[in-house]
Fold each of these.
Amino acid sequence: MKGIVYHGQEDFRVEDVADPKIQDEHDAVVRIEKTAICGSDLHLWHGDPLPITGFTLGHEFGGVVEEVGSAVGRFQKGDRVVVSCTAGCGQCSFCHRHLYSGCQKVAAAGAFTNVFGNPLLPGGQAEGARVPFADTNLFRVPESLGLEQALFLTDILPTGTMGAELAEVGFGDTVVVFGCGPVGTFAQRASQIRGAAMVIAVDLHEGRLERAKERGCIPLNPAKEDLRERVLELTHGEGADAAIEAIGVPSLVRDAIDVVRTGGRVSVIGVITADEVPLPIMSGLMAKNLTFRAGLVMPQNHVQSLMPLIEQGRLDPTEIITHRMPLADGVAGYEVFAAREEDVMKVVLTP
Ligand SMILES: [Zn+2]
Ligand SMILES: [Zn+2]
């Protein structure tokens, strides 16, 4: 079958890869019908070359179950599914505590090894994939929904939702969301659904800010107006109740701490690849009595509440799709996405 394979920085290729096979009784093999390129895939595109090449990329995908192992109980051949980007076993003590990202079995080789699209867990920018522990990591797509409507349950919709959850966004809150990309969009939507009175959307891209305004957010371009002053002006001089960093830029973590009020909550869900980021502990976290949280998405915890919102039309995740291409043109999809050409937000590939 075909897949998009990592060969190094800016060197991804569509080529023949091994067909996925059942290797364990808990596995399923999924024939992929839709797969997306994620902002976090761009870290590999731009980033330092990895020592290992030749693995299939991609962690946002769905399709039809083709085969299941003998221990899979909840799914069978023919089921339409989307796949959690972070795989858990559902059995270890962390999975039992709903901390699937730290699964002691699937992530035993180290952090992130249970995110699809690495040498140990080949990804879903391909015609098919093996999904370990299918009962934990597959989500059934209701008949009323198209696969595209459910596709972002694999990662970015739960990620944005988790941003609002970690920042404890509630009824009547004022929330600052850093980023109007796919994750930022969903953090804004989740904040609105959780009852935020005002969502201030921060971005440098005017086109993205315009779309945020259409979603009912207040756009704020920090290149054009002073971020902190504008937030204070909008919050009667107090600062926001909560802030969500949804891009992954170290300096924005400090900005997020800066714009919340005393007793505010800050969450970081943008992927920050720098391991150490300076934080204002005394003047920020302590002096303002802040709650500061960060985390890696675990779609298993959010799909059950998000699916009905999509079914009821209160959320339309397809709003972020700007480009649709065949998988065969996937490298061109990466190039468009990486260059931020054509106002690109999300590229969806069809194998
Ligand atoms: Zn992703
Ligand atoms: Zn586990």
Note: Residues 305 and 314 are 12 Å apart (CA to CA).
Amino acid sequence: MERQVLVVGAGLSGLIAARELQKNGISTVVVDKGTGVGGRLATRHIAGGVADHGAQFFTARTNIFKAEIEEWLAEDLVRVWGYGWSDGSLKRTVSDGHPRYVTNGGMNNLAKHLAKEVQDIEVDVRVTDIKWIDDEWQVKATNDGVYHCQALLMTPPVPQSLELLSKVNIAPEDRSALQRIQYGPCICGIHVIDGEVNLPEPGAVQNFVEPVYWIANNEAKGITDKTILTAHASSNWSRNNFDMPDEAVLGFIHEAIQPYLGPGATYVEEQIKRWRYSVPLITHPRDTLIARGLPLVFAGDAFGGRGRIEGAYMSGLEAAKAVGEMFT
Ligand SMILES: Cc1cc2nc3c(=O)[nH]c(=O)nc-3n(C[C@H](O)[C@H](O)[C@H](O)COP(=O)(O)OP(=O)(O)OC[C@H]3O[C@@H](n4cnc5c(N)ncnc54)[C@H](O)[C@@H]3O)c2cc1C
């Protein structure tokens, strides 16, 4: 298959980059190993309801991202969930006046919405091998295809991208800049509850006490009519306990959730998800990294120093510019 650009990853940064490249008439194919688009914009169906188990909400500081959010608000794609979280106390929610946005129906809907504006997205396709031969990229994937393209945009978490590029001669300065980037892991619990839950308004607590720093009620968030909690363990605890059996993890999470359960509330169904790369802890200072001497660009939330959803969005935009310039 031949396209000008192959985008690896249909998370937020890959989708935004592909949308902008295609707007500018550059033929682009996006591949993702997941069964659907979104990457860490992840929403799981459970017990007839849904729960966000990756990104929980997003904020905006840049005018560019704020302007796009205005459009999403007008389309009823996203809405404001609140202006801050309880620090764990049952009474107090700290409001800092900054809106926290959520996607109606779950975070993954944001990716699905963006995917409608992008042609040629192939999911369930894992890139396995990348070579730069005779001035073109030859990229092998699990669909037995070989993608031939002139420019390559890599958006997976950087350690995964570097592994895929192990046969490519990346300049040592670029490789070491990329190797400096670090992500924190996150062990996430999804808990369907029968009974009352008393998380303070607007329905979440965020306190940086180990092991669980975030508990949110997806029902209060407005994305489901079932009482389903999402709990996230801290990066530090998740790293030290990444392979702990589910039963033992659940013991720790139950202890953290207990103060917010009404009398007689029970766990109906539970799942544990382990994210090896959840949020960037050490980022690259620029919005992208353009590899020296190669039509190869790295993008994602670990670029630009903002981290998270806004970082992925801004990095995707900048990546489209950087790749686009390779064709002018
Ligand atoms: C538990 C958790 C909590 C979070 N909470 C928040 C929050 O509250 N607020 C916030 O702003 N952000 C939060 N984030 C971070 C946010 O989700 C990310 O910043 C953002 O979604 C990253 O987008 P991205 O495009 O950079 O990367 P990703 O979404 O990771 O996209 C990369 C894509 O590459 C694909 N890929 C990887 N390897 C291959 C391969 N070999 N072949 C093909 N495809 C491949 C993956 O499947 C993935 O879809 C959270 C993340 C997690 C995991």
Note: The mean pLDDT is 96.
